[in-house]
Amino acid sequence: MSVIESFPRVRALKLPRADGFVPWIVPLVILGVWQLACATGFVSSRVLPAPSDVALAGWKLTVSGELGRNIWVSFWRASIGFMIGGSIGFAFGLANGLSQLAGKLTDTTLQMVRNIPHLALIPLVILWFGIDETAKLFLVALGVFFPVYLNTLHGIRTVDPQLIEMGRIYGMTNGELFTRVIFPGALPSIFVGLRFALGIMWLTLIVAETIAASSGLGYMAMQAREFMLVDVVVLSILIYALLGKLADSASRALERLTLAWHPAFRKP
Amino acid sequence: MQEALRFRVPEAELIDRPDYVKQARRLWQGSEVGARGLALTIRGLRKSFGDHEVLRGIDVCIPAGQFVAIVGKSGCGKSTLLRLIAGLESIDSGSVSFGSEARPEDARVMFQEPRLLPWARVLANVEVGLGRGRKSADARARAERALTEVGLAEKRGQWPAVLSGGQKQRVALARALVSHPRLLAFDEPLGALDALTRITMQRLLERVWRDQGFTAILVTHDVSEAIALADRVLLLEDGRIARDIHIDIKRPRKRGSADLAALEGSILGELLRGGDERST
Questions:
Q1: For residue range B67-102, what is the model confidence (pLDDT) as tens digits?
Q2: B88, B90, B106, B128: which to substitute to probe chain A, counting the most A Cβ within 10 Å?
Q3: Which residues of B touch A261 (CB under 8 A)?
Q4: Which residue among A64, A160, A170, B30 is the one 20 to 30 A from A36 at the CA level?
């Protein structure tokens, strides 16, 4: 009897209507504690400005248009670099996954290049391209290339051979086999690559912008450091966090949309 | 007891319900292609993988519309024989010829695994079976008809992942049937199913075979399944046909009847004796 009684209580713990709110509890609590620590003088505003000050700095920069401009520049760099690196990685992944010859020809080279940390190339890239846009795009594209390449290749190589045999028996042409069997089969793995790539995209961009740039979020943070504007530094960091979360949510939504067949991505 | 059985296999109800069977038969008779099997002649068929000779000369004639079961111990070459008949492997020597001109859509295979595309809805999976006819205007209608035939019409919009093992295998059967094949090769299609679902599926196979009149070749390690379904049982041993048994017991065959049990006993005895001789 007691076992039966305990069931409703277990269920009552889940707040179904507040499900969307739950992931935000921890960030909000941290924000509250932070504000409290600053207000009581426990943390000096030179070390860490209160969230309200950060918000105020954000408001001022928004009004002056500086924030919007810098976010846009960073966003533009990130997406162009991502598209370039991502499409090249995807193309190589497809080619090497589908053709043994292409795989033999390029895979070893790519694996060697992969082991060079792409951020180690920053000095060289500055020498080649200066602190121009090209330098940032190059670095982002290079960073994004490998996760997309590796996971596309892996996805295509691990498509169930029994399904491919089935497709051939039922008279699929190579084109049909690719669009109906191989590509959908590789898609979950391609998405893994995409999400890794998004993380690397921001990381690369931040580093590139703090070292060599004349605009963008990273540049804004570095400028603020020069003038001891801690609130602006913290603001840039928080914006990075938000942009990262946004990119992740976008890729999640895309996964939900295209992988609806997959039990792991079905909406609860 | 009957109630309990029904509860365990809800699929059983649907497939065997008389009104349902009638509906499926009507659908079949209304379809465009007449029922006819494909005769099959195999002459001196040999196949090796590396040094290992799997098939050492198979000679057999299968008349159109016959239900043939191939039994034997694992590794005796029965699956290889089936794959050669279906054209999935290259022939080393000998020949497999069909009684008349056969299109690629005329021969279909059903495997132990359903091999459904997880990213395609049930109906789209059945449409795959149309082969070159996939793009024709009535592709959807034909796929729906095949799904109705296996009793899964109401699942047409589902993902394969939500189906049970038996249901998946029925979708695979619908996919194999949709092009109205004249030869259907089954490679242990029921091997992975639980005992009750197996029996339901055996009845379904028998029914579609009787309705459509294709030539059926069933590879199985289950002797009782072979004699419940087949007109003829080929016993494969060491890459040769050791025995060719015609089963004249009339259909529908009653499971557990004395005739079937006696036959099963003798075939099993043969299978086991073969193994003992080799090991001594």
A1: 999 998 888 888 899 999 988 888 999 988 887 777
A2: B128
A3: 118-120, 159-161
A4: A64
